[in-house]
């Protein structure tokens, strides 16, 4: 029994380390994108900049490009992790974001491929299809490497790999990620109708774990739809404390990190930029660069996010426009329960900081 438990723990540890390794190369870029998005939102909120101006469009593109094209960028590090050809992986990720294909999926529930239906899925910012696709690509390339004649291997291997993996991603991996996300969203709606406090507790405690595999985007899409239809949304408010909890847990790691060697200085720099990015609404840098590699701080994030989320549920706070919760976007949540929302974000930050500070880890 104990051996099985140890094996499960080992597998879980390897899985977490693997996900962290995939995102680690783009941690600083995620920080930059988050800061640009936060500063742009500050300018809009302060009335300095109009969200319909050309200047806003340029700045928004700078902040959003990384997230929109995340499958292509992520495929590079995924391919390296799995041992696949990175250029082939990026081509396959590019298929998912090809403008004509994106337009077709926006207009139809499914698109026709030789009489077979491909479910329409939003691939921008997606993670699961990219990881599964790159993992499959590595196996396909190894299989073809051993069996194709040397004289045609140079061009035949990438052709076969691109066709097979692209179709597998479009037919299976993409819809799989969508099904998982839609199921979670339906579960949230059911729980929120029963009790906003329980919904806040559950969503606040688990939303950052969902970010690990990208299924949180289903909730984000629902939030965008809610704002478009009714002018308000509760999901964004409930996940606010969890975002600040990432910053609080990261700050505790920074405080506990001692030493003056070059490696420690670089890690402290990652901590600082990640914390700033989280406060501005983007948690991936501090999560993948600091809290996830240390593992135990993620426990603190879940606790802080859950406590703060429950308080937001009690307050009835909601977003009046679509904006990720951050220090810069607080004006979006002005209205019913606003002060309690601010207090919940502080609670998430402080409680995650204290729990992470007292947990034992290197």
Notes on the protein architecture:
With 362 residues, the protein is an all-alpha fold. The protein is built from 15 helices and 2 strands. The chain has helices at 2-23, 27-45, 54-68, 70-82, 86-96, 99-107, 128-147, 150-194, 196-213, 216-230, 235-256, 262-279, 284-294, 297-315, 338-358, and strands spanning 110-113, 116-119. It has a two-stranded antiparallel ribbon. Strand 1 and strand 2 form a beta hairpin. Helix 2 runs antiparallel to helix 3. The protein is globular. The model is unreliable at 1-9 (pLDDT under 50).
Structural descriptors:
single chain, about 350 residues, mainly alpha, two-stranded antiparallel sheet
Query: Given the helix and strand composition, which structural class is it?
Result: mainly alpha
Mean pLDDT: 84
Shape assignment: globular
Low-pLDDT residue intervals, each spanning 5 or more residues: 1-9
Task: Please give the radius of gyration in angstroms.
Answer: 21 Å
SS field, number of helical segments: 15
Summarize the entry for a quick read.
With about 350 residues, the protein is mostly helical. Helix content is about 75%, strand content about 0%.
Give the arrangement of secondary structure elements:
Elements: H1 2-23, H2 27-45, H3 54-68, H4 70-82, H5 86-96, H6 99-107, E1 110-113, E2 116-119, H7 128-147, H8 150-194, H9 196-213, H10 216-230, H11 235-256, H12 262-279, H13 284-294, H14 297-315, H15 338-358
Antiparallel strand pairs: 1-2
